[in-house]
Amino acid sequence: MHLYGLFVLYKEPSTGKPTVLKSATDLSSFSFLYRKHVGEFMSFTSRLLAERTETPSRNCTTEKEYKLMCFVRPDSLAAVCVTDQEYENRVGFVCLSKVLDEFSNAVPAAKWPQIHKEDECNFSKLNELLTKWQNPREADALTRVQDEVEETKVVLHNTMASVLERGEKLDDLIQASENLSAQSKQFYTQARKMNKCCNYV
């Protein structure tokens, strides 16, 4: 997963025209000769997507191997991220929400319409946020938990597979176990029968 750019924009309520207030990009994966053009294209498509996204709402679009996600709040503040196709939508929108929260806490809403160039905007944290969200597992607690659950499932699956590879069947192991009570063994047997019945329905 790769996050190429973050853009914070303000949509003029009367016209719907967005202005880029601040941006941060990571173009290191592109050839040095093309970085300027790629950055300009990202800025253009971010403005276009923000303009065509209703206020308030979220929008996601793809272009070849890239994905653009846009979040426009009711106060006309918007954020766009440019990622690769592997970047999860849920994580992208959490990132945009955090970016907008950080920005609105640092820059008063009364100043948004007055900013016409990025160097007029006093918000230096966007590059830090871009770096942080390069690895969603570190930035987003839910992603971290989901990854840990997936890793646990793989370990459990591999453990069960290795036990069964030795020619032992789970049913035989349960029947032979001295640690399970007769009721537990009976419960397991009945549950297996019920599952077989459900599969036929």
UniProtKB/TrEMBL annotation:
Pinpoint the Longin domain residues.
8-130
For the keyword Magnesium, the answer is no
> What are the record's GO terms for cellular component?
Golgi apparatus
Protein's GO biological process:
endoplasmic reticulum to Golgi vesicle-mediated transport
Membrane topology classification: Lipid-anchor
Location of the V-SNARE coiled-coil homology domain = 141-201
Where does the record say this protein resides?
Endomembrane system
Alphabetically, the GO molecular function entries are:
SNAP receptor activity
What Pfam families does this protein map onto? Longin, Synaptobrevin
Keywords in alphabetical order, please. Coiled coil, Lipoprotein, Membrane, Methylation, Palmitate, Prenylation
Gene3D superfamilies in the record: 1.20.5.110, Longin domain (3.30.450.50)
Q: Does the keyword 4Fe-4S apply?
A: no
Q: Report the sequence similarity comment from the record.
A: Belongs to the synaptobrevin family.
Protein name (record): Uncharacterized protein
